[in-house]
Amino acid sequence: MIELELFSHCLHKLPNSDLILQLHQIWRPEVFKVRKVKSHRRFEDARDLDDLWYIAGNFCADMVVGLTFQTIPTCIRQCADDAVKFQKNEEEMLICVLKYMAQLNKMRCEQLNQSASTGKGHTTKLQLPRQEQGRIIGVFDSHAYGHEALKWLCNFEPEGYTSWTPVECELQVFQMILQGPRLGIAIKQWVETLRWPSDIDNKDPNDWGISWFEMMISFYLFSGMLFPIKVSGAGARAKYISYHSDEATLLPPSKRAGALQALCFRNVIQNLTTLLGERFFPTFDGSKCSSMYRLGWRNGCAGITRRPVLPNNSKTMTFIQQYLERLGGVRALANPIFQKDVVAQIEIPQIEEDDVPTRFQKYMAFMKKKRRGN
User: Fold this and answer.
1) At 241, phi and psi to the nearest 5?
2) Against a cut of 0.90, is the pTM above it?
3) Using an 8 Å Cβ cutoff, are 329 and 24 in contact?
């Protein structure tokens, strides 16, 4: 399981999970091997020289464990013994309660069935499970989860999806993007590669939608750009540093977390939608999507309700699968974003960037005119 990295989805169920993680970090298949050896065998029981070495190795390992255990302070060992005893006691009591509840429910159902036969009281009709819904395979597969969902999304190329007409604007418009005009230009070029369903204004309960995190990863692999990290201030006084700078690397990993990058991506999309003043990016009433849930992510993940065709479906979904596996059971998109040798698929025109205070002043002046209806 360590060599094939098959433990990430069930790590919380395995004993000695901390040891498994440490072994995974230092594991080198070309150096280390695993062999199962039956314990508590005598040297006289060896069948050959190799078997004798296995018995001796297991004996030495037992000695090391015994010596290590003796070095543990008595108070720590007593604490561990008390914890084990408490756990066993809790298990026995919980099993007792569970048996009681099962027996109580059994008797309750018997009583309800008896009253149903006489025509009085409650019935057990509503206790029957709902019939499983039939499988729907169209643009999406209603029964696809895990690896099947990943394969489905990697090959997501439905018919009838079309690109929108690009919105024309001057380069100076992007000077009002607080995170930098180059990012705004790159996002606009990425959006123009998306293909949308022809009935995008209609709700489709079978559509998995797409999360902001997935769109941000697609944009990163498309442009090679990530969003700068704000280290202090707000508005005109905000100070940013590059995501890949040495200063950013010294910050806590949460400052470069995938969830924070997805939030920045959504903010820039909303900012551009306001600045361009036309149908640059679709808007929806809700923010629920099930695409990340289909891949095995059990936490809420905001996004949009209709899924477009990305310019790099396969690369994006493969990156996301590997990212989720590296989380190791953490219930947040907390890891930094990085892929070695990302090749940008766009060329951004040269533009002299205003400083943050100037960009903020231009944006506020634009919003003031917009509120006045100019």
Assistant:
1) -130, 155
2) no
3) no
